[in-house]
Amino acid sequence: MESKGIEIITSNKKAFHDYEIVDKIEAGVELQGSEVKSLRARHANLKDSFASIRDGEVFLLKAHIAAHKFSGSYDNHDPERARRLLLHKKEITRLRRNMESKGITLIPLKLYFNPKGVVKVELGLAKGKRQYDKRAAIAERDLEREMDRFRKGKL
């Protein structure tokens, strides 16, 4: 998904550590003007955020988009408000069906501007990792790093 024209605003690195990503989907985000200004300045954080389906609509919850400092105090947004995600009905139905499976949740992976300058969010259907799975992933990564060092030293 890292192609030309995509400007990544923020990514949720912890999601890849805490969850096993089963599937990914792209969605638009319904934003206010001051939120877009704040995103252009890269004042966003996806830590501890998640998405939920309510009344046939998907909402991004606990995503922090800081208040824009040059907007007046009367028209600024709530930094952690619920933001509606723009998806087709078929996609929402598919997500709901997958989320009904045991232990599956919807996590935002990254927030970015597409080549047209529109804010998009990449959502991941995620299954929580156990502590021993996290340790195994860290050990595997360390082993891979050690093997790369060894190869470079030999060549």
Helices and strands in order:
Layout lengths: L6 E5 L1 H6 E11 L3 H8 L3 E2 L4 E5 L2 E5 L2 E2 L17 E4 L2 H11 L4 E10 L5 E10 L2 H24 L1
Antiparallel strand pairs: 1-8, 2-7, 2-9, 3-6, 4-5, 5-7, 8-9
Written account of the structure:
With 155 residues, the chain is α+β, with helices and mostly antiparallel strands. The protein has a single domain (7-129), classed as Beta Barrel (Small Protein B, Chain: A). 32% of the residues lie in helices and 35% in strands. It contains four helices and nine strands. The longest helix is centred in the last third of the chain and has 24 residues, at 131-154. The radius of gyration is 18 Å and the shape is globular.
Notable traits:
single chain, 155 residues, alpha+beta, Small Protein B, Chain: A, seven-stranded antiparallel sheet, two-stranded antiparallel ribbon, 32% helix
Instruction: Give the CATH superfamily.
Output: Small protein B
pLDDT average, as an integer? 86
Rg, nearest Å:
18 Å
Q: Assign an overall shape.
A: globular
Instruction: Report the helical percentage.
Output: 25-40%
CATH class bucket: Mainly Beta
Low-confidence stretches: none
How can the largest sheet be summarized? Answer: 7 strands, antiparallel
Name given to the CATH architecture? Beta Barrel
Estimated share of beta-strand residues: 25-35%
Structural class: alpha+beta
